[in-house]
Amino acid sequence: MKLNRFKDFREDRDLTQKQVAKYIGISLTTYRNYEYGNYEANYFVLLKLSKLYGVSINKLLGEKTSSLDLSDEDLQLFTKVRDFLNKKIK
After folding, report:
1. Whose CA is closest to 9, among 20, 24, 23?
2. Residue 28 has pLDDT above 90, yes or no
């Protein structure tokens, strides 16, 4: 069973495991274990990968983002609008 899509996103962007590990600030061995599903990535790692690839954490984990299956661009726009409105309400 595929646990995450780390490898898919990394390869889609022509990055090596070493480059991604350096970006996150972890060892190559640790990153490989995340990618192979031997370790579960913590929130910090998921957040860094999400920013690197421009996708949601749910998408990184191979989950559908919603029942509507919105595109990443739609989700980013929704998030910006939500954050903007939250600031206005405060």
Report:
1. 20
2. yes
pLDDT of residue 73: 82
φ, ψ of residue 50 in degrees (nearest 5): -60, -45
Nearest to residue 58, comparing CAs of 75, 83, 74? 75
SS3 at position 74? helix
Tell me how many degrees the CA angle 55-56-61 measures, rounded to the nearest 5: 105
- Element housing 17 (H / E): helix 17-24
Per DSSP, 25 falls in state T
Backbone angles phi, psi at 76, to 5 degrees: -65, -40
Tokens of 36: 């192979």
pTM of the complete model: 0.66
Q: Is residue 1 part of a domain?
A: no
CATH number where 47 lies: 1.10.260.40
